[in-house]
Specification:
Aspartate Aminotransferase, domain 1; Aspartate Aminotransferase, domain 2; eight-stranded mixed sheet; 13 helices; about 15% strand
Amino acid sequence: MEILKSERLNNLSYAIRGPIFEKALELERQGHPVLKLNIGNPAPFGFDVPPGMMEGMKEHLKQAEGYSHHLGVMEVRETVCRYYTQHGFTGLKPEEIFIGNGVSELIIMCMQALLNPGDEVLVPAPDYPLWTAAVGFGGGKAVHYVCDEANDWNPDVKDMEQKITARTKAIVIINPNNPTGAVYKKEVLLEIVALAEKHNLVLFSDEIYDKVLYDGLEHIPVATLSDNVHFMTFGGLSKNYFACGFRGGWVIPSGKRSASFLEGLNLLASMRLCANVPTQYTIAAALKDDSVIRGMVADGGRLKEQRNLIHTRMSAIDGVSCVKPKGSLYMFPRIDLSKFNIEDDVAFTYGLLTEKKVLVVAGTGFNFIDKEHFRIVFLPDLATLADAADRIAEFLESRRK
């Protein structure tokens, strides 16, 4: 008799490394090179971790041989505390800051610490799918509120409020956003804060891309807008510092703290013993110098040039529209399916992969409400992106009505 997986996993998915990713691997095993535009992993595309972070790790390797405190090395948490205080956060306490093996671990721990079976969490649509999966894994129900494409993908706060029930425990925002590239307007953030305060909800803010900003745009940390909401702000090394493999992240409680929730999170943190210790010693160097990412997103910088190219090329295809990303490493184009012999976003991504050997992710993989979108990662160099854009245009032209 087969031993079955846990029933908790039956309704969970992670499309970024789902069936289409496995199909891409199969094609590669058959000898077909695949252009991978499916995952925000800078290293394969020639983005290097800043030298100061590498030196920080080397310098402290001898100190990193044993476990650290289960919440993280205290001097590292003090550095994080000082940095965020300088950026407008108030009332922070280093002893409350949690260091994790990437933000992903901390998201899962937070959901497990907060939720009882049947509790609800408001999650954006589209979202980074780990959030939806983490809510489900924690025993809760993800309720998706709409982000408005016509309003630069900012959250629809009215839709959010209509979906609050007696079981709602928290609101999740992702700002800057993955997968849309939106950077939320201050007035929208204030409305969300007011909603969280009114209904006594925890506000989880995923700000992992807070330095990946284009066109001189400012990122506003939502936790700087009030002291009357229980904020949990997430940041890390993966995207701003191109250090995905280091697995270094943090979550910062602020505002109106819930002692019981933090006690539960503390328990879970102690059960995993500690986060990766060598990586913790790179955090101070990272927060001290963000010149590398600032150069990348400035005029003439590599990331900005790549964003501009793929946005121009997608927008030039008759039947494709795309809001220009203001932040992050992604864009989320829409296909007008009425113009093409394509059933939906999944059929598009599979056809594009099998015929043109380009791997993107269907919009429904990000829990979006329609079946007309897909996500492109614009980390590859300009020549590779131009090649990918040619292949996408050719595939769509072959399906044009």
